[in-house]
Each structure stands twice: as structure tokens, then as C-alpha cells.
Design a protein that fits this description.
The protein has about 60 residues and is an alpha+beta fold. The chain is about 20% helix and about 15% strand. It starts with 5 loop residues before the first strand and ends in a 26-residue tail after the last helix.
Length: about 60
């Protein structure tokens, strides 16, 4: 693994994901790895989320 690589290790010491070097978008790579490991859809976006304020509508997540 290179100096810019990363490893995602589960508590049972299973290597769930690894990258040998830098990736174009770290958020997307981590989100994809976690969604694969947890069997859930990926929700990360490359741009930061904006907070919605001053609205009366309720925002909820869609649980799987």
C-alpha cells in the first residue's frame, strides 16, 4: 500500500476495503465501501451538502 492508501477494517479484523493509493473523490470511495460492506445504498455526494433552513417541510430518510 502506498503512502496515500487507506484500509477499512471491520471490528472482527476483516479487511472490508483497501486503496493502494489516492482516489479521485475520497467521500465517494468511502461511501461506496461502507454501502457495500453494510449492504445499503450509497448516499455520499462529491459536493458538500447544504443545510436547509427556514422551511416548514420535514426531511426524512428512507430506511431500507
Amino acid at each position: 500500500m502506498g503512502q496515500n492508501g487507506a484500509v477499512l477494517v471491520r471490528p472482527d479484523r476483516f479487511i472490508a476495503w483497501r486503496s493502494y493509493g489516492a482516489v479521485p473523490d475520497e467521500r465517494v470511495a468511502l461511501s461506496t465501501a461502507l454501502s457495500t460492506m453494510l449492504d445499503r445504498p450509497a448516499v455520499a455526494r462529491s459536493a458538500p451538502r447544504r443545510a436547509v433552513t427556514g422551511t416548514s417541510r420535514r426531511v426524512t430518510t428512507n430506511p431500507r
